[in-house]
Design a protein that fits this description.
Radius of gyration: 27 Å
GO molecular function, one term: ATP binding
Distance between the termini: 59 Å
Keywords: ATP-binding, Nucleotide-binding, Repeat
Order of helices and strands: HEE
Structural class: alpha+beta
Membrane topology: Multi-pass membrane protein
Oligomer: single chain
Number of helices: 1
Main location: membrane
InterPro entries: ABC_transporter_C-like, P-loop_NTPase
Strand order of the largest sheet: 1-2
Helix content: 25-40%
């Protein structure tokens, strides 16, 4: 009975240790991630005559990867308003 309890404690302790190590690995991965690009890049500003507002409208777009394949997009309608960021 005492050996069973000892083995149970050993398994539980090793499992908790592994969980803690994985947590530290995840934190390190997040800490080493490259930051996303900023919303605006000062060196890449649009030309002065570039429109300052506008929208994009796509109406009933259908596409396929190649001829004779099924449509992967069918009658897709999208409106992107001024200032919206599409991700």
């Amino acid at each position: 009975l005492q050996i069973t309890n000892s083995l149970n404690l050993l398994v539980r302790t090793s499992s908790e240790s592994e969980t803690n190590i994985v947590s530290v690995e995840r934190i390190n991965e997040y800490a080493e991630l490259n930051p996303e690009a900023p919303w605006e890049i000062p060196a890449k500003k649009p030309l002065p005559h570039w429109p300052t507002n506008g929208s994009i409208q796509i109406n009933k777009l259908s596409m396929r990867y190649r001829e004779n394949l099924q449509l992967v997009l069918k009658d897709v309608t999208v409106n992107v308003e001024d200032g919206e960021k599409v991700m």
